[in-house]
Amino acid sequence: MSNYAMDVDVAKVGCLVPKMDDVKKELLVSMNELYARGLKTSCQWSSDLLLSLEVGNNPKPLAKKIEGYKRPKIIRSCLTSVPKNMSVSKPTDLYSIDQLPIAYHEMELYLHARTCYNAKEYQRASFWLKNCYSKIPLFLKMYSDYLAADSNIKNIGSEATPSMFKEYRNFLDYLSQLLESIRQQKKGDGYLTYLLGVVYVKLEQYEAAVNMLVESINEVPLNWHAWMQLGDLIVDRVKLSKLELPNHWMKNFFYCQKYLDLQLNEQMLGMTQYLFNCGFSDSIFLQSRVAVCYHNKRYIEIAVQKFQELIEIEPCRLENMDTYSNLLYVQHQRVELAYLAQRAVKIDKYRVETCCILGNYYSLHGEHQKAMRYFHRALKLNPLYLAAWTLLGQEYMELKNSNDAIQSYSKALEINKYEYRAWYGLGQTYEILGMFKHSLHFFKQAQLLRPFDSRMIIAVGNVYEKLGNVDMAFQSYLKGRAMGDDEKLGLIYLAK
Questions:
Q1: Taking the mean position of all CA atoms in its chain, how far away is CA 95?
Q2: Cα 43 from Cα 27, distance rounded (Å)
Q3: Positive or negative torsion for Cα 64, 68, 73, 74
């Protein structure tokens, strides 16, 4: 961890945003294509963006200002110009069937298959499309095949036998070869290339997956599915700085998300402020990322305010509400957390965010077994759910189960090595076990990720003191005091 480049310049990535009218045209055409192919998450994300646009003759309000943020010069200078030859699609009617490039004799089969797909009957959808060769039905067939196999192996879970996994792997190999053949013959498009990238991810061929996803994004830059999948593979700041992406305005939103994931909070606020100024100030996606960013920066009051504003804008939205529950948990706001938990259960009790909120609620009330039950449920729904692994480690610590706590924190770091809470949790665990040299190592990793967080600095000082290095401990306590020391622990240790 000490060898990681913490000061890599990854700000040179922005792209100027065209006029909002042109953005709207692109989004309308893209939503038509995404919906036709069953890429629901991308379609929903695009609709959120479309809803936030400031277009037409309405007077443009002043862009929202982000509290406590001053845009550095690097953000402005690093934004490259929009290429003059960038094509803007012509406006079209949303979801207009007659404008889709589907062969006439395949249309009825496609429409029936899509109804099956929408009902999550993926094998039925694939069956009806077996003799269709237009690009949209072909993608829907292959995507249905992939989803059917993937959901089947997930539903079986721990009961799956080695032969089942082998059969699943063989299917993925077959699908990747088929998609690669279509790509080589130039009979596919950016969406089929995206699917090839997803299959490569499942086959753990990550370098090939990155190449395919970048190629897909170059062809169809408004497919948010591809951006998200690519983001999951880029978990290193150095890799992010070396990533070559198309000069399209969607790149700004991708980097907003990656800055947040990699704890580059100032860069994230800079890019968000730029997008606010461009006309996306009402985007729920951006506003939610700003709220999470304030949570990362420990601006608790502002973060709580931002989450409350999100709830007022869209009361039934659960995305990022797990982070809001963490804030309420830290603030010991039992009534607000109980209200949030009740509302989340009414909306969807089987969402990972709801499970996380309920886990925090029971943990705050000292019912740690119940809390663990909900965190485990969240991990069954999504084994890569980072917050659940970290919070599960905390619950194991409450129950003095150090071994399972270490495993949970370590799993969180496998998913994202920039998860400072997992480093900090490991430091606490080894400190309790009396393994102070190990504890010092993990606290230092947390401090590298959070250099201005007084808790990390004082934790390092406390371990130095236990190791008998009083001078280093004294320096750490003084530095922690200079960084704020909200909990006044540095002052107490200095007094002792």
A1: 28
A2: 9
A3: negative
